[in-house]
Design goal:
The complex is a heterodimer. By secondary structure, chain A is an all-alpha fold. In chain A, about 75% of the residues lie in helices and about 0% in strands. Chain A has one domain (about 20-320): ABC transporter involved in vitamin B12 uptake, BtuC. Chain A starts with a helix and ends with a helix. Chain B has two domains: about 1-80 and about 160-235, P-loop containing nucleotide triphosphate hydrolases (Rossmann fold, 3-Layer(aba) Sandwich), CATH 3.40.50; about 90-155, no CATH class. In chain B, about 35% of the residues lie in helices and about 25% in strands. The chains are: A mainly alpha, B alpha/beta. The interface of A and B includes residues 177, 310 and 312 of A.
Chain lengths: ~325, ~240
Amino acid sequence: MNRAFAFRAIGLAALVALAALPWMADNYVVRVATTMLMYCALALSWNFIGGFTGYPSFATAAFFGLGAYVGGVLQNMGLFLGLAWLAAGLVVVVFAAVTGRAILHLKGHYFAIASLVIADVLREIINGLTSITGGGMGLNLTAPAMGVEAQSRLFYFSMAVVAAVALATTVWLDRSRLGFGLRCIEQNEDAAIRIGVGTARLKTIAFALSSVFVGIVGAIYASWTVYIDPSEAFDILISVKPIVMTLLGGAGSVLGPIYGAFLFLLLEETVWRNFLHVHSGVLGLLVVLLILFMPRGLLGAGSRLRVATWLRPERAAKRRAGS
Amino acid sequence: MSAPLLEIGGLEAGYGDVQVLWGVDLAVASGSIVCLIGSNGAGKSTLLRAVSGLVPAAAGQIRFGGEDITHARPSRIVAAGLVHVPEGRRLFAGMSVRDNLLMGAYKRGDGRAAVRRDLERVLALFPRLAERSRQDAVTLSGGEQQMCAIGRGLMAAPRLLMIDELSLGLSPRLVEELCSALVGIRDAGVTVLLVEQDVMTALELADDGHVLQGGRVVLADTSARLAANPMVQQAYLGAVVAHP
């Protein structure tokens, strides 16, 4: 009881701190915090397909880049900022559903490679569409007509909203029948088919879920940095980082991706800034160490799978009585 | 006799270029235990996989309860009441025995009360599972895992339960325990289609039997008559044929 109370108090304090931050801290801190919220959204998104479903997707960069370009182009056409972001999310989710349907019958390494290629194909297409996207020269966006402080607050809170919705979706999925079906696929896809889980449909939904917030975040990122180019928007590191964060925190858990994103950013800002030349090497080392010594991450999900409440009325009742 | 629960006509199926089933005809009467026997590679498992929609049928027809399910999706087939207990058990690791059983009810829409009632029935049928219901399913012994897999199949409230390799790797005593459980399942109204390597056990347990050879059903009869058939005795029961 006391522990639950302490947990809630810490959560509440964190929320208040997050809300007050743009007025309390300097520009650098707000910028780092915005990046952290972006990382949270990316890691939570990867968790849907990589954590819950167990499909090692490297498609995050594809969704991010596509979202950035759709949002950027629409914004330059004069669309209202928020609408451009939502439209980017919509385009990306449809794109993910279609490509997901095509590649989700592959498993393990094969799926990883197929998902890795999507970003490369998109990069080449964006590179070639010079008249719309500016090709290799990149795309310049117009900054919103407001002060620098107001801008930084706008992007900070926009990222916060996407991260919050991604977290709410995770909390819901963790208890839903859909989430339970996904966990069955992760555990044993063959057995999941035999008990009647519609695996093709569920995997596609998970892939689409893992794309929508990434697409929106990509569009917000484009508006935030005011300039995007293909090699940056489709950078492979955008795919790798959320995986490392989620593994760091605990794949398949609810809060793991957030802890992971926080820890990752901490490392990025303290350690790697001083090792710019071996940055990727350190990242690779971290992945190896993680898999060797902490295969289940900080939270160790997977060992404590819970049956969703729809099948366990007595436990739901207990939880209600206990809280 | 009423129309058979499962009716297969001229079924052809295989994997890519390799055709395994070459026109299987088979009928399973409602309320019976039916066994499929045949040597390795005869197509027993492929037949079950084709019926449950995991291997697409190239030709022929599969009817279940009068409904054509030849090209239905696996999830539809489970919802219709045809459940496949796969070879090698395939339980969900990291989930307790109880959760594994409950997962079997994934497709059901008839409410928690009914699911709970069935869970109690399964635990009564397999008391060993009741003792270990909180344990991780992979920590069970082989026989207990098989019970858990069969129990999970029952939780889907099937009309027909198909079990692949019931006795694989199990001790004779456990096999006996499972057999008596299957008789109980049949008497509760669930039809059972069984693939079994141990022909003696299969023919003792089942009401009817089918002999699969080279992807076709070459013999179909009551178990008693199959057990007395010289061809079955020679090929599967190890009887020595007297030379004239």
